[in-house]
């Protein structure tokens, strides 16, 4: 497991940071108080560091020498210091560090933890840099790689569109204005035809920039604009991080809106949205699809006997079992209480065999609830509809009728 290297000669900040990082991020922190001790940790075989947090002024490295050595080892560095004048700040940024953080109390510690979490997520995020100047393009790409983003590069708008077609998961485009074949305005407008602001951010940049150009970029669909002459590294990083975090927040809200809070599987909204699409795709292709409703038998007795918290744990465990047992192309939804609905491509016979096996797994499952020191055993019933009907809602209604019959016939069975 990768660790965090902390080089800090202040006992107060060293203890505070170690405790906070271990508690909030579950990371192992190697705290040292000098460059010599830090370097010994770095060169110890088997030690891998996700990042280094270092005081710029250490007793045996008063001029920030440790920063240079860690960067040379390709360890992302965050400078944690109480004194940063213009000269020191320029020296820090010249070393291509991730950031520097002032020692200003608990707020600075929170910011530092946020930076580390950002570094942890960034390798999964793709950013496209578009600029016909190789020097300018490489300079921006290098800055982004310090923060561990995946970086794609294009020399003009046509190359950029081709890359976006190959990599639809790009989350941020940074585009120059003046380029051959297609300028930044046209590129931005073209991108916005297929990628909304909620899916992708665009930052326009230009050496000829002014407020008028900024306004035009924004009107074309850009999220932000940066003038190259006024380029400040730390401002650039802040803007990039802010746009990425905005997209992540939007994605989290969307996911929450279609996810069942208790089990983490999809909810009714997702079911009727994606289920209708799958239903239509299956019909159009001439394939087969089954709709199954599964319900825990005598679930009220579980709640009455063990309490609702134990009942919730039972539902969570059942959801985990279903996720593990169902094929990848199935849509699993908790539609209410102890009831789950599954859409699974395939024939009725295949679905029946699948759910008979699942019912056997459920009957063998033991739900251990520590706080009441009890083991709960359950069974379930399933109704399956394999006829397409007029629409998905009709399939659901028929599956529900079969489920009712399964309950009536003695439970712990599949009826179709």
Explain this structure.
The protein is of the alpha/beta class and 416 residues long. The protein folds into three domains: 3-115, Response regulator (Rossmann fold); 125-257, Response regulator (Rossmann fold, 3-Layer(aba) Sandwich), CATH 3.40.50; 268-415, 2-Layer Sandwich (Alpha-Beta Plaits), CATH 3.30.70. It has helices at 11-25, 35-42, 65-72, 86-94, 106-121, 134-146, 157-166, 184-192, 211-220, 233-257, 268-285, 299-306, 308-325, 348-364, 392-408, and strands at 3-7, 29-32, 49-54, 77-81, 99-102, 126-130, 150-154, 170-176, 201-206, 224-227, 289-296, 331-336, 339-345, 367-369, 374-376, 380-385, 414-415. The strands form four sheets. The chain has a five-stranded parallel β-sheet with strand order 2-1-3-4-5, with helices on both faces. A five-stranded parallel β-sheet has the order 7-6-8-9-10, with helices on both faces. Helix 13 crosses helix 14 (348-364).
The CATH architecture of the largest domain can be given as 2-Layer Sandwich
Overall domain count: 3
Strand content: 15-25%
N-to-C span: 50 Å
Instruction: Give the number of helices.
Output: 15
CATH class of the largest domain: Alpha Beta
Provide the structure class: alpha/beta
The dominant shape is flat
Give the strand order of the largest sheet, numbering strands 1, 2, ... along the chain. Answer: 2-1-3-4-5
Which stretches are poorly predicted, pLDDT < 50 over at least 5 residues? none
Number of strands: 17
- CATH homology-level superfamily of the largest domain: Reverse transcriptase/Diguanylate cyclase domain
Helix content: 40-55%
